[in-house]
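Record type: monomer structure entry
Structure origin: computed from sequence
Chain ID: A
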Amino acid sequence: MNRIVRLPFFVVLMGIGAIAMIVPAGHAAVMEDFTTMRVFFYGFILFSILTVLIALATSGYSPANVARSQLVGLLSAFSVLPVMFAIPFYVAVGNTTFINAWFEMVSCFTTTGATVYDTAGRLTPSLHLWRGLVGWLGGLLIWVTAVSIFAPMNLGGFEVRATASAGQGAARSYTQIDRIADPSERLLRYTLTLTPIYAGLTLVLWIGLVVMGEFPYIALIHAMSTLSTSGISPIGGLYFAASRFWGELLIFLFFVFALSRLTFSKGMIGEGGKGLRRDPEFITALVLIGTVTLLLFLRHYIGAADRDGPAQLQEVGAALWGALFTVTSFLTTTGFESHFWDGATVWSGLETPGLFLIGMALIGGGVATTAGGVKLLRIYALYRHGEREQERLLHPSSIGGGGREARRVRKQGAFISWVFFMLFALSIAAVMLMLSLTGVQFETSMVLAVSALSTTGPLATVAAETPIAYSGIPDPAKAILAAAMVLGRLETLAIIALFNPEIWQR
C-alpha cells in the first residue's frame, strides 16, 4: 500500500486506465467481436508494461510540493490519458481519423459526452461500452479529487466559503495535513472511501433500469452516464430507451447526486451537521428547476389554448414531465433529453427556446460533484450579495445577519464567485473567437463553446436551432473544443492556481 502511495498521481491513473481496457475486451469476447477483443487486450498489455516501467523509474517519488504535484498530475491526466484511451479505440473503429478518436476520448473523460460518431451503428457495442466506462472513470476522478485536492486548496467552488483566497493557503493547508498523514495517503483514503459508494450507486441504478424493462447493456451505459453526468448513450439518448417513463423517473432521482455533495460526502469536508434541507446548493437547484419548468410549461399551455378542443390530461402531464426532466438533466450538465420533451412542442405548436437549456447548463450542478458549469454555490453567493446590496439601498444603516459564515459568503464568497463568472464568460468569448477563425459560424460557435466549457455535450444537438453535428466541424475546431473541455472540467481558477508563486516556493 505504501508503494502505491509513493507513486506519482498520474502513474496510478495510467495504471487504472490500462486495467480498464480488460472490460471492453471481455465484453467483445462475449459478443464474439474478436477483432475488438484483440485490440483492447493488446492495449491492456502494452499500457500495463508501460505503466510498470514508469512506476519503476519513479518509485519512491517525493515531490517538493504535494499541492503542485497533484494539481499538475490532474491536469496531465485530462490532457494525456485521452491519448492512451484513444489508441485502441482508433484501431478498433478502423475507418476514422486519430483526431476524431482523441476528441471522443477527451469528451468522454471530461464527462462532456459530445460525440463525432452520430451515425447509428457506426460503433460496436463494445466501443460504446468503452465510451461509457471512460466517462464513468472521469466522473470518479472528479469525485475523489474534489474532496482530496480541491478542498484543501480552496478551489472548485470551495473558495466561496473559505477564509483564504482561491489557490492561496495551499502550502499551509498541506502542512497541516502533513501532521496527520501524508497528502498522498489522504488521496488514497478518499479513493477507497468514495469508490464503493460511486460503484454501488451505479450498480443500483443499473439494476433498477433493467427491472424497468431496459436492456442490460444499454442500462449499464445509461447508469454510468447518469452518475458521471456524461450523457453518453449507445442509442442516441433516452428517447429510444425501452424503459420510457419509469426509467426516466429512476434516472431523475439519481440526478440529486449531481446537485449537492452532501448526498455522498457528508462529514468528509467538515459539513457533517448539515442536511439537504439546509444546503443552499440543493435549495437553489430546486428553485431554479421549479421556476424554469413552470415557465416552459406555461408557455406551452398558453400556446395550446388557441388550438381547437380542450387539452387532454395525458398531454398536459407529458409536457410537464418532459420539461421537468430535461431542465434538471441540463442543470446537472448530463444532457439527457426526455422522451416526452418533443411532446410539448406537438401539443402547443411552439418550439422550446434552447436558451433556457443553455442557461441551465451554464449554471451547472453542485460543488464537488461530477456536474460542470459555474456551480450552484457560486450562484447562491451572488444572489445573497445582490439581496444584501438591495437591502442596503432601502436601509443603509441595517446590519446583515446570518452569522460569520453568511457574511463571508455575501462578501468574499460573492467577490470570488463574480471573478470566476467573469473568467468563465471570457473563456466563452475566447473559445468563440478561436472557433470563428476556423470557419465555424457565430451561433454555432456560441453553442459549442458553452457546451464544451460547461461539459454538456448534448447541448449542441438539443439547444441549437438546428442540431449541430460534431463530425461536421473542422479538425482545428475539434482541438479547440477539446482544450475547452479540459478547461471547463478543471475550472479556470485551478489552472490559474498553477501560476501562484506560493505553491512553487517548496
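Annotation 1: The mean pLDDT is 86.
Annotation 2: The radius of gyration is 23 Å.
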